[in-house]
Amino acid sequence: MAGEDLESRGEKSRGSYSNSSFAIEERETHWTSWLIPMFVVANVAVFVVAMYVNNCPKNNSGSKGKCVARLKKLGALERTKMVHEHQEWRLITCMWLHAGLIHLLVNMLGLIFIGIRLEQQFGFIRIGIIYLLSGFGGSILSSLFIKNSVSVGASGALFGLLGAMLSELITNWTIYSNKAAALLTLVVVLVINLGIGILPRVDNFAHIGGFLTGFLLGFVLLPRPRFGWMEHRNLPADVRVRSKYKAYQYVLWVVSLVLLVAGFTVGLVMLFRGANANDHCHWCHYLSCVPTDKWKCDET
């Protein structure tokens, strides 16, 4: 019918998806996940090499052991090396190293359960970008706050995927039928994992930095077209078609992109000028470790 609104057509047919957690058009592409499994294999391979080269089960002796020294050589996040010796590559290499078998298993299980599902829905390019940039963002924030410790692990990248899941839910809010349940589940998972980060020897700044990066990237890379958009190419030329995305999605896209660019720029400038973020936020160290009568926190 001439002049008919495409959105109204979508509303009429939306009821057929009522039993699904969210409405996905039949023609939407579902990808085969291969990049996330490759990331898992790469992390395991690097861990095996690191353990074998230094015979870690025999030689490890806490934070001063040979295994920690080997991790430093392999590319662990170490602020002094980056600021004074210009080893910026540590911002990337640290996310492929792990401090122990349990550390590796927890991260890889989380990556499998979260990453594969996201890659199947959004493809390897977008999820790969979110994973890598989130790990990078987590490394930057960690380096700004932690001065005297080394940090390794894919946790920042993993938290970035969790952040992207949350922003994907928000930006695609109208297609979800079980909004409250999905949001509550994500928030509970995030709170529990960030809560674990206040324990000693856990780099919660990497978690927070990765989460914030992934959260903003989700608004930029994961918006879904409005319902019915995929059908517009099969409609008569005189049928009025609305824009691909809704207005609030465009607003979130612009704001998130600006915040991402500003955040990375300010963070890198502060880091390579040797700034200590604790001087500008005197309480922020509690975000990574809260001292109790059961444990003490290392000085950052």
Structure at a glance:
The chain has 300 residues and is mainly alpha-helical. The chain has a single domain (27-287), classed as Rhomboid-like (Rhomboid-like fold).
Outline the structure in words:
This protein is mainly α and 300 residues long. It has a single domain, classed as Rhomboid-like (Rhomboid-like fold, Up-down Bundle). The protein is built from twelve helices and no strands. It has helices at residues 6-13, 35-54, 56-59, 66-74, 79-85, 90-93, 101-122, 124-145, 155-171, 179-196, 204-221, 247-272. Helix 7 crosses helix 8 (124-145), helix 8 runs antiparallel to helix 11 and helix 8 (124-145) packs across helix 12 (247-272). The chain is globular, with a radius of gyration of 22 Å. 32% of the residues are buried.
